[in-house]
Amino acid sequence: MRPGPSIDATEVIAHLHSLRNSRNIAGQSRFGITPATERLGIPIPVLRGIARDHRRNHGLALALWASGVHEARILASYVDDPARVSARQMDAWARDFDTWDVCDQVCGNLFRPHAPRRGQGGLLELEEGPVRQEGGLLHDGLPGRPPARPA
Fold it and tell me: What is the tens place of the pLDDT at every residue in 59-115?
């Protein structure tokens, strides 16, 4: 079953739960992906496939993020509308980052277009953990900016 374009967050999350893979969850642990939130072990290509039917859906993205499900948060980064993402949302989501993979996916898929307007100090106001690392990567990717020096 592949959820259609008019589906709501509850149905998307139910679909994600139907794809739960214990073997992949064990594999995630070996790579340091051990979130405080629920995880389902769904591969990124599968999440991208689900996202194709829900592009530019800010409301769905917010609901997916609020679910606290690890893969739903990654999916939120694929389906959100970058034009509707605010600095407040970016900072709030960054405070919720609990694994490097969510940080990588959200920053790479959704926050990167906003990096130039966030200023010289980097993308986000937080300066610890995976956000600090990703902020440096985003800074390095901006045109005309020298690579950030490691701390």
Answer: 999 999 999 999 999 999 999 998 899 888 988 998 899 898 999 899 888 887 765
Calculate helix-pair angle for 58-66, 87-96, nearest 10 degrees: 30
Report d(CA 151, CA 146) in Å as an integer.
Answer: 15
pTM of the complete model beyond 0.85: no
80, 61 Cβ separation under 8 angstroms: yes
d(CA 139, CA 110): 15
- Count of all residues that appear for the chain in the document: 151
Q: What is the distance between the alpha carbons of residues 71 and 93, in angstroms, rounded to a whole number?
A: 14
